[in-house]
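Figure S7 source data.
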Amino acid sequence: MENGKRTKDAAVGSEGLRRRVLQRAGVSIAALAILGCSANVRTGEPGTRLLGANASVGKGTVSSYAEFAQDGAPKAIGIVFQARALEGLPTKRSDGHHCFDHDKDGKFDLDKECFGSHEWVIPLPSEVARRSEIAFKWVGLNWNSHGHIPPGVYDLPHFDVHFYIEPIEKIYAIQPGPCGPENVNCDQFRLATRPLPSNFMHADFTNVNAVAPAMGNHLVDLTSPEFKGQKFTQTWIYGVYDGRVTFYEEMLTLQYMLSRPAACFALKSPPAVGIRGYYPTQHCVRYLPQSNEYTVSMENFVLREASAPAVPRIER
Ligand SMILES: [Cu+2]
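Tokens for the predicted copper (II) ion complex:
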């Protein structure tokens, strides 16, 4: 975890920054021209990129970023991977975080008793994190060299990009333990799988008890192609805990990123939100050829007012 540092981009003078912004605007127009796939929504035109914290990933750097419209509304909130961040990624299953001594032999088996992922915490730019009407505050990036459950669906090498609403201390309080398919503390497993108010979740997302330590429960879209026999490329997940939506998540394979996509997808938004603020209506993955970078972002934000919770939906 490497917080608080800024990348070289942030260190260049305003003239250099302006040039880079103009370069990126040119790139986006080129990307638009080659898009044209009917399944995708238009990619939009990136504006001025404000960088947040960064982490060393692979042989490169991953930084959080945000772009704002002139009226102060967010246009994009995401992370940007230097191409070298996709090289030399760890091949071990776990980085040794979130271990639980299941067999009580006094030691942790890295493969069987530690959470199967490599994790980095990347706070979002202060321009995002300090805004009361933006619920997203920090990014949890995970690299899953062996993928994760369910087998045959998400067992390909992939990244999880969590955009967290829930404060970090509450997320990191979710402990490993003996309960559920991803081994969490049993009391917290029960809290994590509490049903949400029905109006706070899109009807396609289902609880499959995928409660992970230092994350929470993951609701999956069972209508997505990877649950219909197609190979997993990228998908959308909602995180929940104790009847609250706690994170928005893009999940995408290394292979998909390396295919150099330039694509946005309509986000299946919940009918209502419990916290007033700007929420994305699209999620995007782009390769930017000029800077040799990849972005994973939430975009086309709309301001939503808070609604009262409806009666909890029935989980079967
Ligand atoms: Cu997760």
